[in-house]
Specification:
Layout (H helix, E strand, L loop, with lengths): L1 E5 L8 H14 L4 E5 L5 H5 L11 H4 L10 E2 L5 E4 L8 H4 L9 H12 L4 E5 L6 H9 L2 E7 L2 H19 L7 E8 L6 H14 L12 H8 L4 H4 L4 H17 L11
Parallel strand pairs: 1-5, 1-6, 2-4, 2-5, 6-7
Antiparallel strand pairs: 3-4
Helix pairs in contact: 1-11, 5-6
Length: 265
């Protein structure tokens, strides 16, 4: 199981949208996926119709009062499971910091699951902050996927999250975490501004930037209001098509051809 943290400390960049739609596209492709909603707002959970009840989030597991067993829920997608979030997760920012192992606690919780081989990928939807939950996710992850909005303020946020990644890697907390990729979101090719931002990011990060940008689309907001993934709500739309292409590129980066069922997206 490969753990990928989807993170950006700047809100409104398409982080949760990416977590929802990348995980569903990968599941449709035949990969066994677990989506961990680590954002106390729980938007990824509600968008898939899984509002966490009391005690169903990872909160009690992280503070050592419960086990991971029973937290994993099957979604309506055959290959996709979820650990939903609830506002109680916000308490981890206070509770975990008191523990000596607070930065590696999430890794300790996930390692036994990783060793079972039950899932091919675990995608973590991180909160839009630089707190304990995000840093814990980076300390547990094999790779970091950064969604960035196609605007110049997004470049500042990108530099900051890359710095956090580098600190986690070089401090010894998680030296194996890699920068898996950068995904440009909310792209409008009609504007020179968007095109210039994409060009600048690609000039700085090269092939780490996914070749497809996620376009602006009203279907994104509409699908979430109906608690559906894009491939359900608007399967032939431009945003759904883009996320299928991202999933194809993701699999090409992560896996050999025989590591996951070669189903068509």
């Amino acid at each position: 199981m490969k753990i990928i943290a989807i993170a950006n400390q700047k809100g409104g960049v398409g982080k949760t949208t990416t977590a929802i739609n990348l995980s569903t596209c990968l599941a449709k492709a035949g990969a066994r996926v677990l989506l961990l909603d680590l954002d106390p707002q729980g938007n990824a959970s509600s968008a898939l119709g899984h509002r966490a009840g009391e005690g169903q989030s990872l909160y009690r597991v992280l503070i050592g009062h419960d086990t991971l067993a029973g937290k994993i829920q099957q979604t309506r997608f055959p290959n996709l499971s979820i650990i939903p979030a609830q506002m109680e997760l916000a308490g981890c920012e206070v509770e975990l910091v008191r523990a000596e192992n607070h930065l590696i606690r999430l890794r300790e919780v996930l390692t036994p699951l990783k060793d079972t081989g039950r899932f091919d990928f675990l995608l973590i939807d991180c909160p839009p902050s630089l707190g304990i939950l995000m840093t814990s996710a980076l300390a547990a992850a094999d790779g970091l996927l950064i969604p960035i909005q196609c605007e110049y303020f997004g470049l500042e946020g990108l530099a900051r999250i890359v710095d956090i990644h580098d600190q986690i890697a070089t401090s010894g907390i998680n030296p194996s975490v890699t920068l898996e990729g950068i995904l440009m979101t909310m792209y409008d090719g009609r504007t020179g501004h968007c095109r210039a931002v994409v060009e600048e990011v690609r000039r700085a990060f090269g092939d780490l930037v996914y070749p497809v940008c996620i376009p602006r689309s009203i279907a994104v907001a509409e699908s979430q209001s109906f608690e559906k993934a894009l491939i359900e709500y608007d399967p032939n739309g431009k945003a759904a098509t883009a996320y299928r292409q991202v999933a194809e590129a993701f699999l090409a980066r992560q896996l050999s051809s025989d590591a996951v069922p070669a189903a068509s997206l």
